Amino acid sequence: MQTHTALATAFLALLLAGCNPATPDEARQALDRKGVAATPEKLIESTRQASDQSTAKLLVAAGVDPNARLANGMTALMSAALNNQPDTVRLLLDKGADVNAEAAGYSVLLAAVYGGNADVVKLLLERGAKLDYRNPSGLTPLAAAKQTNKGDIAQVLERAGAKF
Known about the structure:
This protein has 164 residues and is mostly helical. It is built from ten helices and two strands. It has a two-stranded antiparallel sheet with strand order 1-2.
């Protein structure tokens, strides 16, 4: 019986190690097995598909900068917020992603409003997202929520003190 318990424990440890690499080298090895390069572009690409959140986790564990930007300024956090990936948003914030990054007329919070997930908006607000952001046209996150009929998000923003 002890042998079976020891084997089960060892198997579980291997499974968990595959999910949560302990070192950057382990993460890079896991990425190599997946055929994914550890680049900022791949990190942002992984935030475009909700099914690819494990790749984002490996890329960050491998040392890819959570604040890396594409040529247009888009950050991985903006992309994860826009593409409704709350787990990836939390991971990137935990690893130091800038909650108030801006690019091409968008803030992370504005991207989250367009993404439509109230929980992501709440998380960003908890982590210090600025409510008073205005894009070059003067659009605020609250105005965007109202314009796109996202009443639940508008309520979250209003409770946090957002203004037009």
